[in-house]
Write a structure and sequence with these properties.
With about 350 residues, the chain is α+β, with helices and mostly antiparallel strands. About 20% of the residues lie in helices and about 35% in strands.
Length: about 350
């Protein structure tokens, strides 16, 4: 588990990275869109209308909007219609007429969306305004079949995509660059990296071009004209900056037993005692037969045998390590299972021997 590729090498100095990989420009972001719609044309794999009444209500409402009024008390038994949620993201600077890829997800009990067609669906933002309209044929990357109680399925059938299935109808206004200033936001708060970014920008574009607001936001002066500003931001994003080394951190996944460490993790001298405890329970059926002509009945019972094994623990001396490779070798020497290693790392942290922040996910 701990023999990762990164653990086989000593800690190396961080290399230069493009500024666009370390930070983003404030205001240049995506906006999530969502809509509720209907997929029609399914081959009998749609929602069961008795269990999903909202599908019937949606169909009735759609028909009324088209001038078709159903007689009172009409019960619809639909098999080729499914209620779906449509989601996508509106990229920055999107303009009316541009197309977006959309994801169509069943919200009822439809067996499959394969072969269906999404009817015109408005996609709204968090402010309730319609920003795009979606419609098209749903492409499902799976297939399934069932007969006489047997069922076979490959991939997921309740979610599909439509390439260029939505058309942007409204643009999102942005104030980026107004007043000749933009703000860079680092992906991770780090005062050392922010200082290095300011130094690199001022060295490339002149003194007082950039100034750090805090450990995450950097104020950058830009040309006023739109053409000059775009060219300036393109050169700014391509600027190479060497980020500072991140703080030491160990990520523990309690569900899978995974342990991930960065290069800054170090270990002080400590002693660890570890022993395994296992409990094995074997259950076997026991059949009791009555005597002949006794009129009794056969009784089936079960007997269980419990076996507890405890391996003797041993105290191991782990020498301090100044590199990730040394830490990996020391932890591998314990010989613990991944789940046991989670508890050992927590204990080492509490004892002050592990020089890193523990984060459990």
């Amino acid at each position: 588990m701990l023999l990762l590729a990164a653990g086989c090498f000593a800690a190396l100095p961080a290399g230069a990275e493009r500024l666009k990989d370390l930070a983003s420009i404030q205001g240049v972001r995506q906006n999530q869109l969502i809509g509720y719609g209907l997929v029609v044309g399914l081959d009998g794999s749609g929602d069961q209308t008795t269990q999903t009444p909202f599908t019937v209500q949606s169909v009735v409402s759609m028909l009324q909007g088209m001038g078709i009024n159903l007689p009172a008390g009409t019960t619809l038994q639909l098999k080729n219609v499914a209620a779906v949620m449509v989601t996508t993201s509106l990229p920055a600077f999107a303009r009316p007429g541009q197309t977006l890829d959309i994801t169509v997800s069943s919200m009822g009990n439809a067996k499959s969306l394969r072969g269906g067609t999404l009817l015109m669906t408005p996609l709204k933002g968090a402010d309730g305004q319609v920003y795009a309209m979606a419609q098209g044929n749903v492409l499902v990357g799976g297939v399934g079949a069932s007969a006489n109680g047997s069922k076979a399925q490959i991939n997921h059938l309740s979610v599909g995509r439509i390439s260029a299935g939505a058309t942007v109808e409204r643009a999102v206004q942005t104030s980026m660059g107004e007043g000749g200033v933009v703000f860079l936001e680092l992906n991770d708060t780090d005062f050392s990296t922010a200082s290095r970014v300011v130094e690199a920008v001022n060295k490339r574009f002149g003194t007082d071009t950039a100034a750090a607001q805090d450990g995450r936001v950097i104020r950058v002066r830009t040309p006023v004209g739109s053409d000059e500003r775009v060219a300036f931001l393109g050169a700014l994003e391509s600027l190479n900056v060497t980020p500072a080394q991140m703080s030491a951190k160990v990520i523990l996944n309690a569900r899978t037993g995974s342990v991930v460490m960065n290069q800054a993790v170090t270990l002080d001298n400590c002693a660890v005692s570890h022993g395994n405890l296992s409990v094995v329970i074997n259950t076997e059926p026991v059949i009791s037969q009555p005597a002949p002509l006794s009129g009794g009945q056969t009784v089936v019972a079960a007997t269980s045998q419990i076996d507890i094994k405890k391996d003797p623990g041993q105290v191991l001396l782990l020498k301090g390590g100044t590199s990730l490779a040394d830490v990996v070798k020391a932890l591998n020497a314990i010989g613990a299972t991944p789940q046991d290693l989670l508890a050992i790392l927590q204990a080492m942290k509490a004892a002050g021997a592990l020089r890193a922040e523990l984060e459990i996910i």
